Description:
The protein is an all-alpha fold. It has helices at residues 3-38, 43-57, 61-74, 81-107, 110-118, 123-153, 165-176, 179-211. Helices cover 83% and strands 0% of the residues. The chain contains eight helices and no strands. The longest helix has 36 residues, at 3-38. The chain starts with a helix and ends with a helix. The mean pLDDT is 90.
Amino acid sequence: MGRDEFIFLLIGLKWTVVLSVVGFICGSIGGLVVALLRTCGLPALERVTAGYIGVFQGTPLLMQLFVVYYGLALVGLKLDAWVAVAIGLTLHASAYLGEIWRGSIEAVPRGQTEAAKALSIKYVSRMKDVILPQAIRISLPATIGFLVQLIKGTSLAAIVGFTELTRAGNIISNQIFEPLTVFGIVGILYFIMCCPLTILGARLERRFAMSGR
Length: 213
């Protein structure tokens, strides 16, 4: 395991971080839309978004990436591996974050909404200034926990031939025949990314639990 191999791992690490950031940011935008539609009070929209969430929560991420990359190619839409993985992670994240944030919105005391309505505050201002700030605070531990899962989920991008950290480790292992060393380093790199987030999520959960007493 030399310098060149380690640099190759770091390049794979870079793409793991990029995929995680893109998937989380785009998934957050989609997740917010999903959460708002799930709590809008219109039965048709709530059923549609519930079905959307059910599809992505009820199927493996591996299959979702497979369908986006290979399935769309069958209908003439050939996507680059990077684009396909980014789309797959975005759809996956939007479903999970949408459900997390839907639960957080509904966890805000109903009196907050009723008081805002009594003050004639419109829906957009009510959500932006009253409900969402409280819901985001409630959802932070679960949101950070999902981000950790998303980072680890990027390892499945190898199915479409995209070289992120895990696939980079597999390539190097096949070249130098030192799988324990290579994947030991890969595991350490994942740990360095995920452990601080896990600790942050646990601290936020404890802090919010204490402040809610």
